[in-house]
Amino acid sequence: MHVGPGESVTVSAIVVGAAERGVLWSVDEGTAQPGSLGSVDAQGNYTAPSHLPDPIVVRLIARCAADPGQFTDVLVHVDGISVEIVPDVLGLPVNRTAQLTARIFGAPGQSVTWSLDDDATHGTISVDGLFTAPATLPEPPTAVVRATSVVDPTLSGTASVQLTGPVTVVVSPTEATVVLGASIQLTSSAQGAPDTGVEWFLEPPGPSSGRVTSGGYYLSPDYLPDPPVVQVWARSHFDTLSRAAVTITLVRPPPDVLVMVTPSAALVATGSSRQFTATVENSDNPAWGVAIVAPVREMHVG
Questions:
Q1: Band of the pLDDT at 31, cuts 50, 70, 90?
Q2: C-alpha distance from residue 67 to each of 14, 60, 104, 216 (Å)
Q3: Cα separation, 161 vs 130, whole angstroms
Q4: Whole-Å CA distances, 221 to 179, 183, 208, 230, 253
Q5: What number is the average pLDDT over the span 23-29?
Q6: CATH 2.60.40.10 domain span(s) along the chain
Q7: Where in the chain is the domain with CATH 2.60.40.60?
Q8: Which of 240, 179, 241, 246 is CA-nearest to residue 212?
Q9: DSSP secondary structure of 136-169
Q10: Which one, 40, 139, 179, 245, has the greatest CB density within 10 A?
């Protein structure tokens, strides 16, 4: 049985020896992508994919509804030539480019002619399949790119480009000072994009810059890099050329405050006095005060 790309054919199977004559149809996809070999409905109507599948021989399985362990198969050959553009659906902001690739199935020649189904306000396409979005958003904001087979100009494939306005990535904060070994939560969004999500990454990369999670949580390194500045970037999922950075300045933690009292121990008789002095290091805080608390022991002399 033969069918062309995108065409349909009806196959049938008869159940013998069972009261229930129902048949359950399915496509044996094996390791192929789901749906890439076509589809078959409950009545046995098989529809081939719009592009030639790999392999081009598709196995349809008919199982007995009463006993699914009993089955037979039908082989369908998908013949002809088809043209496919990869990707066939994509989103693109204005003033951006996207490389498209055409594949021809069922013919030795792979040459295609690129064109747009729309006017120049929707963008341009080069002879190599490089699509350039327009500078301003057209109406409607959709461009249809077509690749036509040179061998058979009656065959072509299309790709749909959904055009959007410019994308701006916003981060908060834009600058921060972080102590070694500490962390900070950063936030970002890609404004103007259908997908506002971003990808976080570090410049320079590597453990000396610390690390950042997919949620924008930055953890500083344990040692001070040279120079002690890290750029934490947020890049738009939708438009990878749109990005913004948070400038992180790394600093060492302040030294511990030391308080020294002289003398460190003393024996003072009841009713007597003794002068103590205190020295505070690693602090310029004038509010520091020192309180001396010591147990009092009564002494009798003589």
A1: confident
A2: 13, 17, 42, 55
A3: 12
A4: 9, 9, 6, 10, 12
A5: 93
A6: 168-251
A7: 2-80
A8: 246
A9: S--SS-EEEEEEEESS-TT-EEEEEEEEE---EE
A10: 40
**pLDDT given for residue 223 in this prediction:** 93
* Range in 145-154, 165-174, 263-272, 280-289 the model is least confident about: 280-289
Give, as one character, the DSSP assignment of residue 264. Answer: S
Q: Domain 83-164: give its CATH code.
A: 2.60.40.1080
Mean pLDDT for the stretch of residues 209-218: 96
User: Are β-strands 71-78 and 2-3 bridged in parallel, bridged antiparallel, or unpaired?
Assistant: parallel
Q: Which candidate, 38, 7, 35, 13, places its Cα nearest to that of 25?
A: 13
CATH 2.60.40.1080 range(s) for the chain read 83-164
* Alpha-carbon 88 to chain mean position: 19
User: How many angstroms from the chain centroid is the CA of residue 266?
Assistant: 68
- Looking at the predicted structure, is the pLDDT value of residue 293 above 90? no
Task: Fill in the amino acid letter for 97.
Answer: T
Long-range residue pairs from 137-141, CB within 8 A, at least 24 positions apart, any chain: 137/94, 137/163, 137/164, 137/165, 138/163
User: Are 158 and 144 in contact, with CB atoms under 8 Å apart?
Assistant: yes
Q: Cα(43)–Cα(26) distance, rounded to whole angstroms?
A: 11
| Greatest CA separation for the chain | 126
Name the CATH architecture for the domain at 168-251: Sandwich (2.60)
Please state which CATH class domain 2-80 belongs to: mainly beta
CA distances from 6 to 46, 79, 142 (A): 10, 10, 24
pLDDT(254) > 60: yes
Report the C-alpha gap between 164 and 191 in whole angstroms: 11
Measure the CA–CA gap between 192 and 80, rounded to whole angstroms. 43
Q: Is the peptide bond between 207 and the residue preceding it cis, with omega within 30 degrees of 0?
A: no
| SS3 at position 44 | coil
